[in-house]
From TrEMBL:
Protein name listed in UniProt: Methylmalonyl-CoA epimerase
PROSITE patterns, alphabetized: VOC (PS51819)
Assigned EC number: 5.1.99.1
A Gene Ontology BP annotation from the UniProt entry: L-methylmalonyl-CoA metabolic process
Provenance organism: Rhodopirellula maiorica SM1
C-alpha cells in the first residue's frame, strides 16, 4: 500500500464556529483562513493554520447531519484526522481489499477543493480517518 503524503488537517466538531474562533486566533495564535459551506455534507467549515498544521472547525447546518449526530452523542471535540493521498480511488480499493471498513466506497466532494473518503473508526482504533486528494492536482 502506498504511504499517505501528510496529515492534511484535524477536524473538530463544534456547535458554533464563532464562539470558538477567539480561542484559536487569540489564545493559540492560529491564522484564520476562512469559512466554507459544504451543502452536500450539511456543514460549515472554518479553516485555521498553525505552522504546518491545519484545523477545521465543523458546524452542522442540519440537525440530522453526521456532525449534529456526533455532537448529540459525544459532545464537541475531535471528530477526525485527515490524511492527504495521491490517488484516492486506488487507496479506497486497497483498503477495502485489505479487509478494512470504508464508510465511503467512492470519493465525494469535501471542503477546500478536496475529494474525500472516510475509513470507519472500527478499522482505525476508534478514530474516524479521512483520506483526501486535491481536485486541482
Amino acid at each position: 500500500m502506498m504511504p499517505v503524503k501528510s496529515l492534511n488537517h484535524i477536524g473538530i466538531a463544534v456547535r458554533a464556529i464563532e464562539p470558538q474562533r477567539t480561542f484559536y486566533e487569540d489564545v493559540l495564535g492560529a491564522t484564520f483562513e476562512g469559512i466554507e459551506e459544504v451543502p452536500s455534507q450539511h456543514v460549515r467549515v472554518a479553516f485555521f493554520r498553525i505552522g504546518d498544521v491545519r484545523i477545521e472547525l465543523l458546524q452542522s447546518t442540519d440537525p440530522q447531519s453526521p456532525i449534529a449526530r456526533f455532537i448529540d452523542k459525544r459532545g464537541e471535540g475531535l471528530h477526525h484526522l485527515a490524511f492527504l493521498v495521491d490517488d484516492l480511488r486506488t487507496r479506497i480499493d486497497q483498503i477495502t481489499q485489505s479487509g478494512l471498513n470504508m464508510i465511503d466506497s467512492e470519493p465525494r466532494p469535501g471542503a477546500d477543493q478536496m475529494d474525500v473518503a472516510f475509513i470507519h473508526p472500527n478499522s482505525c482504533g476508534g478514530v474516524l480517518t479521512e483520506l483526501c486528494q486535491s481536485r486541482t492536482r
